[in-house]
Amino acid sequence: MRAGAMLLLRWLWVLPVWLALCDAALAHKPSDSYLTLAVDGAAIAGRWDIALRDLDLALNLDADGDGRITWGEVRARHAEIAALAQAHLAISADGHPCSLAVGAQLVDEHTDGAYSVLPLRATCPRTPATLAIHYSLFADLDPQHRGLLNLTAGGATRAAILGPQASRQAFILGQVNRWRQFIDYAADGVWHIWIGFDHILFLLSLLLPAVGAWQNHAANRGTGRGAGRGAGGLRWQPVPRLSLALWDVLRIVTAFTLAHSITLSLATLGLLALPSRLVESAIAASVVLAALNNVFPLFQGRRWMVAFGFGLIHGFGFASVLADLGLPRDALALALVGFNLGVEAGQLAIVAVFLPLAFVLRRSVFYRRVVLWGGSLAIAAVAAVWLVERVLDLK
Q1: What is the three-class DSSP state of 350?
Q2: What is the mean pLDDT of residues 171-183?
Q3: What gap in Å lies between CA 241 and CA 248, rounded to an integer?
Q4: Is 253 helix (H, G, I), strand (E, B) or coil?
Q5: Is 321's pLDDT higher than 90?
Q6: CA distance linking residue 207 with residue 351, whole number of Å
Q7: What is the rounded distance in angstroms from the CA atom of residue 346 to the CA atom of residue 328?
Q8: Is the pLDDT at 27 greater than 70, yes or no?
Q9: pLDDT of residue 176
Q10: How far is C-alpha 20 from the chain's CA centre?
């Protein structure tokens, strides 16, 4: 144990680097706005929810610089917020522009903070057969910003993701393209797993030891220098074949996907709900435990069970994203399947990049001490900060 402790201290220099990288990533977390429109003849009514943190970045809403945005500060800048919104949203009906008016704003809470709610009303020259939307909000500040559109017309609901990569989209109101809906929700699933740093770190914590296995120290005596020692006299031994690592990863990813699909579906259908703060805290705790298990192995060979158990919690986190998207009730199953498959595709993309590199490096001291041990400790440290913030509701 003393040797293990000395080795941990020896590699603690890795932590600041990892923490800096994670902090940089979090500082550039992509933002979302929520645009809801309902077409009734030549009139369009709706609302536009824009995050106050994004508006503060663009307009410096925090006038007194105290780190808090008050209702008074938001209300005093309503004209500028409305002008910003109107300058970056254009609606046209069959090629003819619609006039857009922004009403008195309100403030609402989403799962990721406070939002300014702008009531919208557009008047078109005619009842549109094709409605085109041009969206450019924050395109100059954040190229990863997205506008999540919920469009209702003729009793049908459509969903779309607007942003720099798809700033102008047209919708034929007389028909609903189910395939396009499916693609949009799948793309959002992929995007959410890629920008969900807690989900990524949880998955990486489970993948880091996949190119090796913990074995009893006594049984491995004399096998050479290639093993790292963990708690309880265990040694981490690299696997001899990629197929063994692939099988381990397949069990982990499948278990995680199955688990989060269960709770995601139950929560989205309104059959089961947990407080958001509890869910987010539990997700952070899952990352801490999964990472520490790589240094002090308790779930040897049973990481797929850990993935399944904590995947149930992560599913509630995914459900909050779908809730914010505004699910089309007439295509609920399609949205659920698309989002789930998107999350799975995002996970497999991470695995496809990580696993070959890990397998090549698995016998090196660098992988054992820096990537496996140092990386796991860094992940645990970052997640511990998240856990404290979420449990104590710190900003």
Answers
A1: helix
A2: 75
A3: 12
A4: helix
A5: no
A6: 8
A7: 23
A8: no
A9: 65
A10: 20
What is the SS3 assignment for 339? helix
Residue 271 has pLDDT above 70, yes or no: yes
Higher pLDDT, 221 or 165: 165
Angle of helix 332-361 relative to helix 242-268, nearest 10 degrees?
160
* Amino acid letter, 56: D
pLDDT over 70 at 14, yes or no = no
SS (H, E, C) 38-100: EEECCEEEEEEEEEHHHHHHHHCCCCCCCCCCCHHHHHHCHHHHHHHHHHCEEEEECCEECEE
Determine the 3-state secondary structure of 171 from DSSP: strand
* Encoded amino acid at 368, one letter: R
Q: How far apart are CA 166 and CA 178, in angstroms?
A: 18
**Backbone torsion region of residue 222, taken as left when φ is above 0, otherwise alpha when ψ lies between -120 and 50, otherwise beta:** left
The whole-angstrom separation of Cα 293 and Cα 295 is: 5
Backbone angles phi, psi at 169, to 5 degrees: -135, 145
Q: pLDDT by residue (tens digit) across 231-252?
A: 555 677 888 888 888 888 888 8
